[in-house]
Design brief:
Layout (H helix, E strand, L loop, with lengths): L3 H13 L3 H5 L2 E9 L7 E4 H13 L4 E7 L3 E3 L2 E12 L2 E15 L2 E8 L2 H9 L7
Parallel strand pairs: 1-7
Antiparallel strand pairs: 1-2, 3-5, 4-5, 5-6, 6-7
Amino acid sequence: MTDTRAVGRRFAERIAGLDFMAAFGMLADDGIYTVIGKTPASGQYHGRQDLFDRLIPVLSGFKSPPVLAFEEPIVDGDRVVLVAGGGGEGPRGPYDQPHYAFVMRVRGDEFSEITEFMDTGALESAVFGRKLVDG
């Protein structure tokens, strides 16, 4: 029987410990990873290899990887929500994410679905160098 809380905690520990490859490696081969918003990194990634091939290179330019502190997981059946906050230094500037969430569906010891919620403006600015301006 799957322990959803334990799988969620393992993911959080790996992210908090900056072991992103091990954390993202928990996505099933047929899993779906979704980054919200309309940034160049937003969209769906189909399986672990697609995630590694397309998203990880975009995030590899961080000068100081984002360090996230997680709250206790919220669990309901095979669903787990991880709420976090933190920041780092992106290739184009500070990356401040005080409100972060991963909403995941657990299958065995991996995830069949992960949706990543964050301030996409911070992602746009720190990673892609886009500026938000008043209109």
